[in-house]
């Protein structure tokens, strides 16, 4: 029992991880998206599995294979992702919102392929739902971990996100820093906590970063119990 507790600290816990980009349709052949590859989120799902959790990975479209032993739900849009998360939210102990959710989507989705015109084109965009913020508003026992990919003012923006989304932890990285951007196998993270403290980590593999993220969460959850 002791060994299980020590090496599988997430045994009996349900962890939801969202990963990858979302796609917001313009018409049947076009969409808006972003540079997320899903690597960080997939590493978190794998690490949570290794720590003994029952893992559900809710993923936008990516080119990498999901880790074995996790339940995968594939989604496209921010709204699809929201619905998939809400379907399991009540049973979850930890939610890790690694996904790079689109902030805007076309206001009008065309049923048929849009034909080009001689003139230019402006598309009207509307806001998508902020999934993490909604989770924060409906939070019960869940420990909510958000991400913040920034290019400047990392600390200020990360702390603001912690508050505005009612998250328990924010994992921030400067995507302009070499070794911390989209698509690579490494990351340079700073973890911000609700008590105002933060912890900076050196450059490490996304898998190692994933273990540190979950370890920080486990320590904080232990304190709350
Ligand atoms: N997030 C979300 N739903 C959205 C947008 C973001 O759940 N519609 C989550 C992301 O998964 C991430 C966190 O919120 O965990 C922060 O995302 P980020 O894009 O850094 O922050 P935003 O609040 O969207 O603010 P901005 O893009 O202006 O920095
Ligand atoms: Ca955003």
UniProtKB/TrEMBL annotation:
Record field: catalytic activity: (R)-4'-phosphopantothenate + L-cysteine + CTP = N-[(R)-4-phosphopantothenoyl]-L-cysteine + CMP + diphosphate + H(+); N-[(R)-4-phosphopantothenoyl]-L-cysteine + H(+) = (R)-4'-phosphopantetheine + CO2
Residues engaged in binding CTP: 103, 113, 147, 161, 165
Keywords of this entry: Decarboxylase, Flavoprotein, FMN, Ligase, Lyase, Magnesium, Metal-binding, Multifunctional enzyme
Transmembrane stretches, start-end: none
Upper lineage: Bacteria, Bacillati, Bacillota, Bacilli, Bacillales
Organism of this sequence: Domibacillus antri
Cofactor: Mg(2+); FMN
Name of this chain's protein: Coenzyme A biosynthesis bifunctional protein CoaBC
Residues of the DNA/pantothenate metabolism flavoprotein C-terminal domain: 10-218
């Amino acid at each position: 029992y002791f060994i299980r507790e020590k090496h599988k600290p997430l045994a009996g816990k349900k962890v939801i991880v969202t990963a990858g980009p979302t796609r917001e349709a313009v018409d049947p052949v076009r969409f808006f998206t972003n540079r997320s590859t899903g690597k960080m989120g997939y590493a978190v799902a794998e690490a949570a599995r290794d720590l003994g959790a029952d893992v559900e990975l809710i993923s936008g479209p990516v080119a990498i294979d999901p880790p074995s032993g996790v339940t995968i739900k594939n989604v496209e849009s921010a709204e699809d992702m929201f619905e998939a998360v809400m379907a399991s939210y009540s049973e979850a102990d930890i939610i890790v919102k690694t996904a790079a959710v689109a902030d805007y989507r076309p206001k009008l989705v065309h049923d048929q392929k849009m034909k080009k015109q001689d003139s230019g084109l402006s598309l009207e965009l509307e806001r998508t739902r902020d999934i993490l913020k909604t989770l924060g508003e409906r939070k019960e026992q869940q420990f909510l971990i958000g991400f913040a990919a920034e290019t400047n003012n990392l600390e200020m923006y990360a702390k603001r996100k912690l508050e505005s989304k009612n998250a328990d932890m924010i994992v921030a990285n400067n995507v302009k820093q070499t070794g911390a951007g989209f698509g690579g196998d490494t990351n340079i993270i700073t973890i911000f906590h609700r008590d105002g403290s933060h912890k900076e980590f050196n450059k490490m593999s996304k898998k190692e970063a994933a273990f540190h993220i979950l370890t920080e969460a486990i320590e904080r959850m232990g304190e709350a119990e």
